[in-house]
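ok so i was messing around last nite and threw this chain in just to see what happens. nothing serious, just curious
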Amino acid sequence: MATQQPHASFQLAGVNMDCADAEAMADFYGRLLGWEVTYRDDDFVSMQDPAGGAGLSFQEEAWYQPPVWPERHGEQTR
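result:
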């Protein structure tokens, strides 16, 4: 009987979103999910899932432009 080799594995710890206003994003998602902020600095806010799942973080970027819908040619270059 052949022995199986161990498989590589990983666990997703969190998802980071670029945005124009990290505090506003954290406020929205905090109220939506019932989560609290666990870390913040000048342009970054982090939240952890109280049930132990992947957390969320928001990073302010000066270049950030929100997506448009419907898509307009040449307006979403990043």
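not much to say yet. The longest strand covers residues 14-19.
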